[in-house]
Amino acid sequence: MMETDMHPNNATPGPMALQGVKVVEMGQLIAGPFCGKTLGEFGAEVVKIEATGAGDPLRNWRLLQDGTSVWWQVQSRNKQSVALDLRQKEAQDLARQLIAEADVLVENFRPGTLEGWGMSPEELHAINPGLVMLRISGYGQTGPYRDLPGFGVIGEAMGGLRHLTAEPGRVPVRVGVSIGDTLAALHGVIGVMMALYHRKVNGGAGQVIDVALHEAVFNVMESLIPEYSAFGAVREAAGSALPGIAPSNAYACQDGWVLVAGNGDSIFKRLMDTIGRPDLGQAPDLAGNAGRVARIEEIDAAISAWTQPRAIAQVMDALAAARVPAGKVYTAKDISEDPHYRARQMILPQTTRDGHTVEVPGIVPKLSATPGTIRSSAPHLGDDTDVVLQGLGLSAAQIAALRERGIVQ
């Protein structure tokens, strides 16, 4: 693996939270690999099995540098790449050998794919009883929809999120990133951590973690179902506002947009004083949230009238002085230039294996004793095939023979 000197705390790292944990990552694109990325940042040894030929399609997604996606540089750091043609039995046997020595298997294939390769949970637990097996799919491993194809955007729609991401009466839109996949990955990480803890304290047995994309989205949908159950209320799209909480919205300035969250009772009074509307701040019926919700159009209009002739910086300074929560709507340029991001090392330089330096997101969460690190840059396809297979006991001649027959790359 290619080493780097990039550690988020600018200090020589000590033992890491997941040091000694071995992960085999199978699958591609976002949900499974984001889980592997997160585990790897905190010390897990992650071996990524890719298909021979082109490998993970994410290598070619969005903007490319020297033929490789810069997204790949983030998603696959701290990983080793082994290229296997899993359509062939000998490659499946090699994968089983890797899994037999692993603590965690991460996969995001359509349900039934692993079973078709002779790698069902029962078969894998027979060779590795302690294996924690994370399975991420569109609809889960059971249920009437399990065999349907599902991507993150479909999970966002079925999970209830897409219905809310619109201006009232307009077409539902994407959040802007693949939030369904990432939510599934984060739920998968939580599941892996719980399963590893259970294995440690309850006799060493592994288990299967079943994460469905739509369920991961649904899990963060707040009061959506209780409100429907109790009142028959169907929550609808509300644009940039926070329904039932007032005022909380995006307001236009001369040079962009600012989000203002003035929905606390005392915060609201300070906000109204700041914008020159103490009459609203002192109105008895606006002292509580319910009254403000009833008059939200009037309140939003008052805030907008104050923000529109002002620059973002002027608005932000005034609201900060009044202790009113507010935030500029950031672009990538804003994030890159923000001193707070830099101070907290959330923008880090990373050197690719082609010799480029690219700035990438830092590591979340921040652990005081065992912080995450970027220990190696993202691999080329099959960079680590020989090293990993030698670790299984194969000789150079055996690996060369496998490569000659297209079983490995």
Secondary-structure blueprint of this entry?
Layout: E1 3-6, E2 22-25, H1 31-41, E3 45-51, E4 64-65, E5 68-69, H2 70-75, E6 79-84, H3 89-100, E7 104-107, H4 113-116, H5 121-127, E8 132-137, H6 152-158, H7 179-201, E9 207-212, H8 213-218, H9 224-231, E10 248-253, E11 256-261, H10 265-274, H11 278-281, H12 289-294, H13 296-307, H14 312-321, E12 326-328, H15 332-337, H16 339-343, E13 347-351, E14 357-361, E15 374-376, H17 385-391, H18 396-404
Parallel strand pairs: 2-3, 2-7, 3-6, 7-8, 8-9
Antiparallel strand pairs: 1-15, 4-5, 10-11, 11-12, 13-14
Keywords: Transferase
Pfam families: CoA_transf_3 (PF02515)
Protein name: CoA transferase
How would you sum up this structure, described in words?
InterPro entries: CoA-transferase_III, CoA-Trfase_fam_III, CoA-Trfase_III_dom3_sf, CoA-Trfase_III_dom_1_sf. Keywords: Transferase. Pfam families: CoA_transf_3 (PF02515). The chain contains 18 helices and 15 strands. Helix 1 crosses helix 7 and helix 6 (152-158) packs across helix 7. A six-stranded parallel sheet has the order 6-3-2-7-8-9, sandwiched between helices. A three-stranded antiparallel sheet has the order 10-11-12, with helices on one face. A two-stranded antiparallel ribbon has the order 1-15. With 409 residues, the protein is α/β, with parallel strands linked by helices. The radius of gyration is 25 Å and the shape is elongated. It starts with a strand and ends in a 5-residue tail after the last helix.
